[in-house]
Amino acid sequence: MTMFKMSASVLAVMAAATAAHARDQVQIAGSSTVLPYATIVAEAFGENFDFPTPVVQGGGSGAGRAMMCEGVGENTIDIANSSSRISQSDIDLCKTNGVEEIMEVRIGYDGIVFASDVNGAEFAFTPADIYNALGAKVMKDGALVDNANKAWNEVNANFAAQPIQMFIPGTKHGTREVFDVKVLEAGCKETGAYDAFLATAEGADDKAKASAAVKSCLALRTDGASVDIDGDYTETLARIAADTNGIGVFGLSFYQNNTDKLRVATMNGVVPSTESIAKGEYPVSRPLFFYVKKAHIGVIPGLKEYIEFFVSDDMAGPSGPLAEYGLVSDPELAATQQMVADETPMGPLN
Prior knowledge:
There is one protein chain. With 350 residues, the chain is of the alpha/beta class. It folds into 2 domains: 8-109 and 287-342, Periplasmic binding protein-like II (D-Maltodextrin-Binding Protein, domain 2, 3-Layer(aba) Sandwich); 121-243, 3-Layer(aba) Sandwich (D-Maltodextrin-Binding Protein, domain 2), CATH 3.40.190. Helix content is 40%, strand content 19%. The chain has helices at 8-20, 35-48, 61-68, 88-96, 127-134, 152-155, 176-191, 193-200, 206-217, 233-242, 252-256, 274-278, 303-310, 313-316, 321-325, 333-342; strands at 27-30, 55-59, 79-82, 102-117, 124-125, 137-140, 143-146, 166-169, 226-229, 247-251, 262-264, 266-267, 285-293, 327-328. The strands form 3 sheets. Strands 1, 2, 3, 4, 8, 9, 10, 11, 13 and 14 form a 10-stranded mixed sheet that branches. It is globular, with a radius of gyration of 23 Å. The termini are far apart. The relative contact order is 0.19.
């Protein structure tokens, strides 16, 4: 009889594969930013395929990656959604727990633009401008004061003397996180307000104080100059049509489909476009990912099919429902589709 010696990791995957077959529903956790996109795909997948609708949960990018790296088997998730790239510490944890191969799937880019009535004034914003327009407290003469700016020319002398009225994504919207981090938090730091908040922040350690300072940066004025929009971008467009002084936050693709109605602003001197976002030049954007435990492909029913469906032209393409919600379609989507078809694991981080 011929005897074969198998490594512990191979044996673990085989054992997990046998156990995992008892679960017939794809399980996903992670980023709150990716969550609404994944939910849209999961619901469409359940409606159009002979597999149960995948279970999609939030919890945060880091938590999702940690869950994925707990090991292999039916008691561990299949996919981790992430609004930041996986870290080497995540990969090391995965390997320690027998998760040897991971597929990195970039689904597109999270990019938002600032646009107003097509016949209105032109704006060339910086994050500091937006923060000084919307922040609850701003810097004046070296001190934090309640925001009393009423018109854009009070924020920046180069701007038109029109009332500050902004329609921004609500806290449950898929693009609110990038607005908070890349615009409000960045602008707060540019103006010196973050440092002022940090100087008086309460907390047990530096990390807690920094978190408290960021929370203060994200506090918005409540006098009506800033209005949360919880619906889709058509609601924001309708608000601007009703008030041509309004400036709205939109997904890039939505703006591109409404250039006859909207005039887009630059941010830090960069015109928002698919190319400038994909290249990382436009500052209010970032790539979005999900990570797949390759050992579960072929074991968890529907996992490969879900991944392929997610990155299909019908879902993640420029005319798909994810773009309508705010995702910037990846110009290299075809390469991602081929990678998924080939089940190619990610290489070393670069």
